[in-house]
Inverse folding.
């Protein structure tokens, strides 16, 4: 009977210590502009291609972004005109990212990450311009764009009560887009 209890305890201890390779993250993403910023939300699923407790990690990720219809307003000091823009954006992305951590097995493990994502975006909206003198203009726009995105960021993985939590700040190179993701390892 003692052998059975010891075997069951060892089984539960080893499964709790085995870290899942799947992580689900979500959080806000924003893009500042003169006169305001556009804010949306991103969700992301990641799969660790290498063991997650190593100093170098390689992840495959898939995600999506949704931005509700938003408006921004502004004034031009040059000609005294004002403008208004409304837009909505949605995207899906797939790619790879790498992370380097100096303390991969610590309870609190900081890391640096960089990656490359294939991203397909859909955008629609309108631009209104109201000159100080003259006729106002209205320009609707909509379209889709496929591109490569290059996220870089800093993160922190915390192991708390057998659960892995991940906090990550990302910035996309060449864009004024920032994101803050909070994630957790999935139990499978």
């Amino acid at each position: 009977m003692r052998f059975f209890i010891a075997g069951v305890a060892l089984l539960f201890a080893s499964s709790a210590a085995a870290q899942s390779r799947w992580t689900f993250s979500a959080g806000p993403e924003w893009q500042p502009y003169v006169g305001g910023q556009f804010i949306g939300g991103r969700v992301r699923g990641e799969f660790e291609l290498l063991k997650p407790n190593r100093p170098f990690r390689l992840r495959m990720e898939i995600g999506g972004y949704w931005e509700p219809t938003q408006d921004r307003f502004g004034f031009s000091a040059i000609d005294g005109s004002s403008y208004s823009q409304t837009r909505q954006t949605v995207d899906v992305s797939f790619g790879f990212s790498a992370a380097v951590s100096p303390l991969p097995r610590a309870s609190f493990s900081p890391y640096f990450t960089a990656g490359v994502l294939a991203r397909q975006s859909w955008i629609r909206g309108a631009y209104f311009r109201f000159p100080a003198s003259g006729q106002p203009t209205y320009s609707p726009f909509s379209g889709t764009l496929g591109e490569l995105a290059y996220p870089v960021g800093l993160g922190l993985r915390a192991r708390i009560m057998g659960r892995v939590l991940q906090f990550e700040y990302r910035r996309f190179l060449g864009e004024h887009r920032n994101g803050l993701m909070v994630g957790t390892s999935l139990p499978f």
User: Anything to note?
Assistant: Residues 117 and 149 are 5 Å apart (CA to CA). The longest strand covers residues 108-130.
